[in-house]
């Protein structure tokens, strides 16, 4: 067989199998009766491209032809030429032709007259024996100008109606909004898609993925999340365990229920398997960004984030996260601000507003004031949106505006009573800042018992509250009972750093304070060395929180001079003041609190914080949103804290 005949036969085989998204290099080689490596050699020799590229370009050529007819949507055409993902189709199309499929479709509308009403396609499934054959699939194949091959499976287990596919893609777009109000609508759409095609594996997979997102970004209970994720994942796997979307849902389930580092290899393999089948899968890239970051692999992690944003340029969630990382991790602040301005200009994502506001707190003298104003205005337009309430709680805590922080915190607890991330942390911090330690412990016990707060966080926070009350022996007993083995492995250097969590660090810091207060410095030092080493190795694990690592390390090493220098430079000179006053107020550095030099610097920082606070109060009064009761509560609170800090020394 000469070159022309070989290529012609190969093209015809690909064309005959366009409706089969699983038709790839292996299947083409089998149809041609040659090995995969031989196929690669011949395609490379005759066409100067890889076999996978050869197949993909044939699909795209037919897609271009269909786009010019103006008879089908872009999503429908993606399905008709064998792409699992409309996103991947659009990316591949633009890569080949230099412009997105939407441009081609727009041009076709100019060149073609509207179709007659009688030409609308009808979706009429009929049944032959036990296999439901979809007339749409046959008509779609006819639209491609081909004849059916025996290797094309048109049974409902791997084909679906374009209507079901359209519902599925619409649901995916809603899920990507990551809004509490969007998830139930997406569920309805997917249920309709499944009703149309009970064997639509990708729809079940999307349902599993959706429930995982709904808990984190909305009000879904964790127990409900786990049940529904498992239910729909099992159904998806039973229908098509090899589909990229099913593989993603499976890996996502493992990610949501992870136990690092034990599960890291399996989780990475899961998401990597998706990319092997669909290298342009944005969700897989984003999850690999998260997983690699958790493992401390920051360079490759960031490359996955950049790739996800590149693949989905209109996914403004990805751009928001990219801007966040550019600002705090890469210190590319100008680029970060440009990206976040694009998010605000081109989308209604709340993340654009609140991350720009966070950037302002680090970039200008009165950044906290502007950030608060941004959130206050945004909450008038979008009342009770979790992001705005959460971050304004954080800002008001950092401004020492506790009455307002309490207000936002209560609203979040009412609106999102099961969301640990958005609800528990700030509420606990407010109780600690107000020195209501018994309430902080009771609050933590309730969240641990009834609302899914993990044991490590609960024990670490209860121990911290006991310690701040002065109950050293009780604190030590609580910590050793729960974290004793962790402390031992930290001290001897055998604890895997990749499995360290913020709760373990918090517990270890409290334990170090106890040991030093009890004069057991030799026992404390190995723990200090481990934590500072961890900070050095995993210095990009979070976003802005890691900027406090150098303060923690100087404190743990009992280096008062170095601590004060880093604190002063960070707050007053380097534009890193977000969260600083709050951590001081929460008694994160108790061993230094009676040092005159520490107290002097604390007063300077507090004076600057209260200067910004006064501007916020003036703004709220002008807006008619200030409660006069808050004046007296702020005065009483500040007076009580001054008395307690001066009259109750903790260290001798």
TrEMBL record:
Q: Mind telling me which residue stretches traverse the membrane in this protein? A: 123-144
Ordered alphabetically, the record's keywords are: DNA-binding, Membrane, Transcription, Transcription regulation, Transmembrane, Transmembrane helix
**HTH araC/xylS-type domain span:** 8-107
InterPro entries tied to this protein: Homeodomain-like_sf, HTH_AraC, HTH_AraC-typ_CS, TPR-like_helical_dom_sf
**Which superkingdom heads the taxonomic lineage of this protein's source?**
Bacteria
List the molecular function annotations (GO) for this entry.
DNA-binding transcription factor activity; sequence-specific DNA binding
Please provide an example of a Pfam family that matches this protein in its UniProt record. HTH_18
Name the UniProt record assigns to this protein: Helix-turn-helix domain-containing protein
Instruction: Give the organism, scientific name.
Output: Muriicola soli
Write the lineage as a comma-separated list.
Bacteria, Pseudomonadati, Bacteroidota, Flavobacteriia, Flavobacteriales
């Amino acid at each position: 067989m000469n070159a022309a005949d070989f290529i012609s036969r190969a093209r015809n085989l690909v064309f005959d199998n366009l409706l089969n998204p699983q038709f790839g290099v292996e299947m083409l080689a089998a149809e041609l009766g040659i090995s995969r490596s031989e196929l690669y050699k011949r395609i490379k020799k005759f066409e100067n491209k890889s076999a996978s590229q050869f197949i993909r370009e044939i699909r795209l050529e037919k897609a271009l032809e269909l786009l010019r007819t103006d008879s089908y949507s872009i999503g429908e055409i993606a399905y008709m030429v064998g792409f699992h993902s409309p996103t991947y189709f659009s990316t591949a199309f633009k890569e080949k032709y230099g412009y997105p499929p939407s441009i081609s479709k727009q041009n076709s509308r100019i060149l073609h007259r509207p179709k007659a009403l009688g030409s609308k396609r009808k979706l009429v499934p009929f049944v032959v024996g036990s296999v439901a054959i979809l007339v749409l699939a046959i008509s779609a194949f006819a639209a491609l100008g081909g004849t059916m091959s025996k290797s094309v499976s048109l049974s409902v287990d791997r084909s679906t109606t374009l209507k079901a596919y359209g519902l599925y893609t619409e649901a995916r777009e809603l899920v990507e909004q990551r809004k509490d109000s969007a998830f139930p609508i997406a569920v309805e759409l997917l249920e309709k898609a499944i009703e149309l095609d009970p064997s639509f594996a990708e729809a079940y997979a999307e349902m599993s993925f959706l429930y995982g997102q709904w808990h984190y970004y909305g009000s879904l209970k964790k127990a409900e999340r786990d049940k529904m994720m498992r239910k729909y994942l099992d159904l998806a796997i039973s229908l098509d365990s090899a589909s990229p979307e099913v593989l993603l849902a499976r890996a996502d389930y493992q990610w949501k229920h992870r136990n690092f580092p034990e599960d890291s290899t399996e989780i990475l393999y899961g998401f990597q398997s998706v990319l092997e089948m669909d290298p342009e899968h944005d969700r897989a890239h984003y999850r690999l960004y998260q997983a690699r970051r958790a493992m401390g692999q920051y360079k490759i992690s960031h490359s996955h984030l950049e790739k996800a944003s590149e693949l989905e340029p209109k996914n403004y969630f990805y751009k928001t996260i990219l801007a966040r990382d550019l600002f705090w991790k890469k210190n590319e602040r100008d680029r970060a601000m440009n990206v976040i301005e694009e998010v605000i200009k081109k989308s209604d994502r709340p993340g654009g507003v609140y991350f720009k506001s966070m950037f302002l707190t680090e970039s200008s003298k009165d950044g906290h004031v502007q950030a608060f104003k941004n959130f206050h205005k945004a909450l008038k337009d979008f009342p009770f949106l979790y992001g705005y309430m959460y971050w304004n709680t954080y800002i008001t805590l950092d401004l020492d505006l506790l009455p307002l922080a309490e207000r936002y915190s209560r609203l979040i607890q009412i609106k999102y009573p099961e969301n640990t991330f958005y609800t528990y942390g700030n509420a606990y911090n407010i109780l600690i800042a107000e020195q209501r330690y018994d309430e902080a412990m009771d609050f933590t016990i309730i969240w641990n018992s009834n609302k899914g707060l993990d044991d490590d966080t609960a024990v670490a926070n209860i121990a911290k509250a006991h310690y701040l009350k002065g109950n050293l022996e009780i604190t030590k007993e609580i910590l050793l009972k729960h974290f004793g083995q962790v402390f031992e492995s930290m001290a001897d250097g055998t604890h895997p750093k990749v499995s360290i969590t913020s709760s373990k660090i918090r517990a270890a810091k409290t334990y170090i304070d106890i040991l030093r207060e009890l004069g057991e410095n030799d026992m404390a030092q190995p723990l200090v060395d481990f934590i500072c080493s961890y900070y050095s190795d995993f210095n990009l694990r979070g976003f802005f929180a890691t900027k406090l690592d150098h303060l923690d390390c100087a404190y743990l090493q009992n280096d008062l001079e170095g601590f004060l220098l880093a604190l002063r430079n960070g707050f007053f000179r380097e534009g890193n003041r977000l969260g600083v006053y709050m951590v001081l107020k929460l008694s994160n550095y108790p061993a230094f609190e009676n040092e005159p030099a520490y107290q002097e610097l604390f007063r300077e920082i507090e004076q600057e914080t209260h200067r910004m606070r006064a501007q916020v109060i003036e703004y709220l009064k002008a807006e008619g949103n200030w409660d006069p009761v808050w004046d007296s509560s702020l005065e009483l609170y500040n007076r009580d804290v001054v008395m307690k800090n001066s009259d109750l020394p903790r260290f001798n």
